């Protein structure tokens, strides 16, 4: 049964989010999102339409403040050689205001990247890069959850 009263300070802030890429902490991460989509087919019973999950797909984005080249050359060279390198991403949010000081940790294995910005800039502006990726949902796990206390 859920709590009837939740105070605003319990709302989790993304400020405390961290991301590791193949075990390396990515300090310049600005945002991260990974989601699983249930792919469905329509099923009809009499006059009613329902749906059946036929597969799962995973995708996401990482937005970085440009500080390093962050594996750009390695990925480009692999692609040029017909290789499809895979990575592991781990995200963790541990807000000090979370009830019980709990954390939410998600690990995603078998991550592939879909595109690579070779170069970009705007005079007078800071550079941000966005990396889109895919993954197999069966290779992802919620390692730690934030539970009601």
TrEMBL record:
Question: Which chain positions lie within coiled-coil regions?
Answer: none
Q: Which domain of life is it from?
A: Viruses
In terms of InterPro entries, this protein maps to: DUF2001, XkdM-like_sf
The signal peptide, as residue positions, is: none
Q: What is this protein called?
A: Terminase
Task: Give the residue ranges for region: Disordered.
Answer: 83-102
